[in-house]
Amino acid sequence: MSIAGHRFTLLLAIWAANLKDSCPISRLLAEERPMATTVWKGHLTFGLISVPVRMFAAARGERISFNQLHKECHSRLKQPLFCPVCNRNVERSEIVKGYEYEKDQYVLFSEEELDKIEPSSARVMEILEFVKLDEMDPLYFDSSYYLSPEDAGLKAYQLLTNSMKESGYGAIAKLTMHQREHIVVIRPGSKGMTLHTMFYSNEIRAAESVPTNKVELKDQEKKLAQQLIESLAAPFEPQKYRDEYQENVRGMIAAKLKGQEVTEVAQPHMAPVIDLMEALKKSLAEKQAPASAAASAAPAPVGKKPPARAVQPIRSVQKRAGKKIAG
Description:
This protein is of the alpha+beta class.
């Protein structure tokens, strides 16, 4: 092949790759896995031992976001920063922070002034005490992070991780991040340390009292409820749970891009429970019926797999023949 032919083939391959990346449906269905970024860097200390560490976000909520458009022309709307006194839009470089101590009266702060009052926990995460993990109420947990060591602190990091894992203790420490000092708990994970920022006790709202002392439960009711729990018991496998609403939103977007119609999802009708015993018996019977049917079914022939059910990536979609959605 000539040089011109090779050049044409290369340009064609680049064009095809760009076309694939620019397809809105391909971008919609593709799962993005962004690289983890460091959210805090410093030292973890306990006693006279100091471990250089980095923090990475362990979880992040994922959802489809919609832009706000002008109904008339479908242009994306902007929200400029507007000063009513100067009667003009303001650039971000012109913004300062202020605390309103009286109506329309502010005391001003610069970023440099806020940095000056940072406590030592902005750079050093000192372990204050160790507590039993099974004594901690998950209600206090806020955000989750991974705590990874730098090369110089790997041995001390591993020693602390193993010691906490064997003893069942977690570490309580303080950490300043995003202009706030957090109380955190550090616990050993399967591949290292995990860190959870926690709510302070004054941030936990009191639960409304439930008048359980006025309710009388029968032994048969408690027995049936326990049997129902056991029938639903299963190992914790978080990967099998999905956000069906977000899946339906993706399906709706893909359907509209193809000019298809989306069917409405059927909603369950919840009737009030009149007879608790009867409701428990029916619930237990419904859970036991599929198990009995599966046990009585004839086994498949050896060497021949049963047909697998196809997984539909886009659900509840009906084609509208020859029609496009306007707008």
